[in-house]
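All the exercises in this workshop are built on plain-text protein records. Sequence and backbone structure share a record, each on its own labelled line. The question running through the whole workshop is how a given chain folds. The record below serves as our worked example for the rest of this section.
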Amino acid sequence: MSNAIKIVIIAPMREPPAQINSEQWMIDPNITYLNHGSFGARTVDIYETQLAYKKQFESSPVHFLDRQRHLVHNARKVVAAFVGAEEAGFGFVENATTGVGSVMHSLELSKHDEILTTNHVYNGVRQLIKHHCQQNNLLYREVDIQVPILSSEAILASLDENITSSTKLLVIDHVSSSTSVVFPILEIVKLCRNRGILVLVDGAHAPGMLNLDIDALAPDWYVANLHKWVCAPLGAAFVWAKECHRKSIHPMTISHWHDEGIHAEFDWQGTRDISAWLTSADAVRAGDFYGWSRIREHNHQMVLWMQDQLLDAWGVERLTPLDGSMLGSMATVPLPQGAPSDIETCLAVRDYLYEKHAIEVPVIPFHGRGMVRISCQLYSKPVDITVLISAIKEIKS
């Protein structure tokens, strides 16, 4: 972590938001669950909805998959509308990383062309892009965006300075998995368009966390998960392509409908369980019941309040502006000085917190400093952060 910038800690002024009455969640109530950002969580209703689809399949497999193609079509319409994406460019995949893989395989780059990303990139995507570059004689580079980040303009300036004549594609997080930073995607896409650079947005955390309008953002490709903040089952994600790329993008599994269009190809990626895709539409409708803007605002305010409690208890600096404008439903906070800072000890602390205190929270190293990433969802309670602070204090004692 850079020592060049210090942010003055202001005493917490926020209050935790009022609780929203929600459906029953599958999460064990005995666990202090601050890690919604990894795999999300399901309500009982969504879990049972997926089971109902599975039972339909098992009762008549051929009829379910072969004669009811409209089920996937209908789910696609619901989810595409929810994320503000033109349906013609939308295809279901298993997870966002698989979506990135589909885009990588569709690229037509030349030897020594460069794929650029940042040091905030999700490590699974990092490894995927590196492998693709090695296999195709392409260059890979990360822009080092230092934290704390004072403004979106600082990100834009850093990216602008690092684009070269070799740069052909920028892979950028919408919400960073490690630092929780919400990147200014609209401005980044405009910058890259002016510089003649393609843009792939990894929006793994964005649906359900942010008020998403992919058509307005207008990247070349957008990939995202639905199992996180939409709370759909695992295996529900999508890839979206701008019109000029729709003939060239294909799923990782090539099957019967190759070159028959993005819908035909992505709807049938070999024999597979499509229940997660179908249930993702039900998860969107469940959020409609409470109001997605209400859910997003509740989670945002709760995570800002929890971040304040950690900053005050640990006397550490924020990674993003004080007003919370670069955060969604997650926040990453540095651990107190002297806490673990390498991957092995951070993982050991994470496991200790779970085994000794039943706290589930990521403990990760970034820029040579150990950090925790907290997530808030409707089931989150103010006491959750008090439990975490007490547990960390015990470790430090």
About this structure: The chain has a mean pLDDT of 93. The chain is about 40% helix and 15% strand.
